[in-house]
Amino acid sequence: MTQPYFIGLMSGTSADGIDAVLIGTEGAQSKLIGSHHRPMPAPLREEILAFRQAGQNELHRLATLDVQLAEEYAAAVSALLEAAQLRATAVTAIGCHGQTLRHHPDGDTPYTLQIGDPNRLAELTGIMVVTDFRRRDVAAGGQGAPLVPAFHQARLVSTGVPTAVVNIGGIANISLVTAAGDVTGWDTGPGNTLMDGWVAQHHGEPFDRNGEWAANGTVITPLLSALLQDPYFATRPPKSTGPEYFHLDWLAAQLSGKEAPADVQCTLAELTVESLARALEGQHLDVIRVCGGGARNAWLMQRLNDRLKGTPVTTTEDIGVDPEWVEAWAFAWLAEQTLAGLAGNVPAVTGAAGARVLGGIYPA
């Protein structure tokens, strides 16, 4: 049987770049064949971040950014295929998450918005595109996020082993899989987004490499306590959030201005650790597997191990899956689900009225 190929594209809340993966699937098995990271051009990243707050001339800017992102996605696909020495005609479909600009799944008019024009992406690559995965779940009364728990269960968890998969991207989320295979999960709060914003503001760096700056600071206990008082942390799941909620203005409301910047960074790292730890406490787990950019933050991983004593905290690398590529792989898998007519959401996670086939299909 000819092995189908799928491509997964992910540009996360940090908007620092595009992760592209090439996946080979055969039956229920799949493997990572190639990967590529394309840094986001600075002007596009600035425009993405600007959309987290209301601004002027948004309709024109949105339409322009939609097209420009599709062109960046297409360039990432081209580089991925060139490195793999594979023709576009060999690829069944691209699963593209798109770039989230706003995520408001609650209230009288819930919505979520991801952009990256799939029409242009299909035209430029010559490959079918499956995208817009979140809105069907929202239409069914769900949060539209997180969508990765179904993939985590399918690809990252061993049968009969109660496991937590912790994704630390801009926002952190958890997938809890019981020994019986039941799945729950939710966004726990900020992952890297506040730390990234704070180090960019003070050092002009996109992230705190290995958490070295945070490790040189000291937790400001009153600040940590104040941040943890935010109602989001006490809200029961299903729940999801984004950087339009947890941003530097949210942090600034709790600062006096007299804090040492390194101490604030240390406190933000501890906020990520503590919010995750509280979500995982009381769960009967054999192992905790971390993926996402946070898995490369040595200080964060050390603090998680210290805080979650009693349960082994590893990364998905221990099962042969590079933590950097898990989310992009998840959207390649979701494209497979859509084309097979299978559900991609987990109602127990998102709160949707039922299982739904997700996404729109844009032929090549």
Question: What would you say about this model in short?
Answer:
By secondary structure, the chain is of the alpha/beta class. The chain is 38% helix and 22% strand. It has a 6-stranded mixed beta sheet. A 5-stranded mixed beta sheet has the order 10-9-8-11-12, with helices on both faces. A two-stranded antiparallel ribbon has the order 5-6.
Question: Which descriptors would you attach to this protein?
Answer:
364 residues; alpha/beta; Nucleotidyltransferase, domain 5; 2 domains; six-stranded mixed sheet; five-stranded mixed sheet; 14 helices; 22% strand; globular
Characterise this structure:
The protein has 364 residues and is of the alpha/beta class. The mean pLDDT is 95. It has 14 helices and 13 strands. The protein folds into two domains: 5-146 and 325-362, Nucleotidyltransferase, domain 5 (2-Layer Sandwich), CATH 3.30.420.40; 157-320, 2-Layer Sandwich (Nucleotidyltransferase, domain 5). A hairpin with a 2-residue loop joins strand 2 and strand 3. The strands form three sheets. A six-stranded mixed sheet has the order 3-2-1-4-7-13. The relative contact order is 0.17. The protein starts with a strand and ends with a strand. The chain has helices at residues 42-50, 58-84, 118-125, 134-139, 149-155, 193-203, 212-215, 221-228, 231-234, 248-252, 261-280, 298-307, 326-339, 347-350; strands spanning 5-10, 17-26, 29-39, 91-96, 99-104, 111-115, 129-131, 163-168, 171-177, 183-190, 287-291, 313-315, 360-362.
